[in-house]
Amino acid sequence: MLFKYTAIDQDGHDREGSIEAPSQEVAVSALQRRSLIISKIGAAEGKSIFNFNLPMFGRISNKEIVILSRQVATLFEAQVPSLRIFRLLAAEVDNKRLSAVLSAVGDDLQAGSPVSKALARHPEVFSVFYVNMVHAGEESGKLSETFLYLADYLDRTYEIVSRTENALIYPAFVISVFFAVMALMLTLVIPKINAILIDSGQEVPIYTSIIIGISDFLVSYGIFVLIGLAALGFYLWRLGKTERGKLVLDGLKLSTPYVGDLYRKMYLSRISDNFATMLVSGVAAVEAIEITGSVVGNAVFASVLTQVGADVKGGSSISDAFAKHAEMPGIMVAMMKVGEETGELSKILMTLAKFYNREVTNAVDTLVGLIEPIMIVLLGLGVGTLVAAVLLPIYNLAGSI
What we know:
mainly alpha, Receptor-associated Protein, 3 domains, 3-stranded antiparallel beta sheet, 3 strands, about 75% helix, extended
C-alpha cells in the first residue's frame, strides 16, 4: 500500500514523499529508521469498499519465494549490493504485497540493518528457517550460495507437499459430491416416492424401508445434523489452535491407515532436508534441530525434535538422541550414526531426504492407483443400492396395476 508523508530530516528541512508498505505502522517505522521526524502520513489512495487490500488477494505463494530466492542469489553473484537488489526486485515483482515487503526490507537495509534481521521483520513471508539460513550465510560470507540452497530446498518442499495434497484432493472432492447427491436424493426424491408407496398400500422390502427410514430422519432432523457437523468442525478447529489439540490431531493424522504412512514419510523427508540444508550452510547442530522442529509442520515430530535438541545440548550424540523416539525409523538413526562417525552427516541426511522423497512419490502414485478403482466400486454400490431400493417397489407397483 502506498503512503504519502511529510517529515523533517536531521538538518531541519521539510521533506515530502511516498513509501510503499503493508501498513501505516510499518511505513512509520521505516521512515523513522531513516532519521525522519514524521509530521503527517496517510494512504495515497482514498479508502472505499472497493479498494480494501484484503490478505486473500495478496497471498504470497511458495513459488514466488522460490523465484525470489533464485533472483537474489543471481544478483549477489553479480556483486550487486543488497540494498540495490531488494529495491530492484520490489519494483519488478507483480505481487503487490510481496513488493511492499521487499520495499520495507530495502528501507531496513538502508537504515543499516543486516539482511537476516530485515527479513525477520516479516515472519508471514520469511520463516524462521529462512531467516536463520540467511543469517548463517551472512556470517560465512556465502549469501549467494545460501539463497540458492533456499531456492532448491523450497522447490523440493513445494513439489512433495503439492504432490501429496493433490493426491488427496481428488478423492475428497468425489466423495464430498457423492454424499451431497445422496443427501439431496434422500431429502427431495425419496419422500415423494414414499408418498406414492404409502398410497398404494403395497408392502415394501426391508432394504427400501431402511432407505425410507434414513430419508425420514434426514427430513425431520437434517438441520440438527448440519448444526452438529458445523459444531464438530468448529470444535476441531479450536482444538487445533491449542498445543494439546495439535498433538492429538497430528497424532491421529499419522495413525490413519496408509495415509498416515504417507504423511510420516513426508515429514521425515522434510526433517532430513531441513537439517541437511542448515548444516551445509554452517548452522550449529542444536540450533538446526530446534529450527527444524519449528517448521516441520507436525506437532508430534516437533515435540520429538524439541526433546532431541535438549538431549544433544546435554551432551548426547545426535543419533542416540533420535534413537530414543519410536517415531524415528531405525534405518534413519543408523545412517545418522554412520554420518557422525565419518563426519559426513549433512550428506547422509541429504541422501535420506532423497530416499524419503522417492518413497512419498511412490506412495502417492500407489494411492492414486488404488483410490480410483476403490471409489468406483464404492460409489457403484452406493448408487446401485439406492436405485434398487427405489425402483423395485415402483416396478412391483406397476406390475400389480
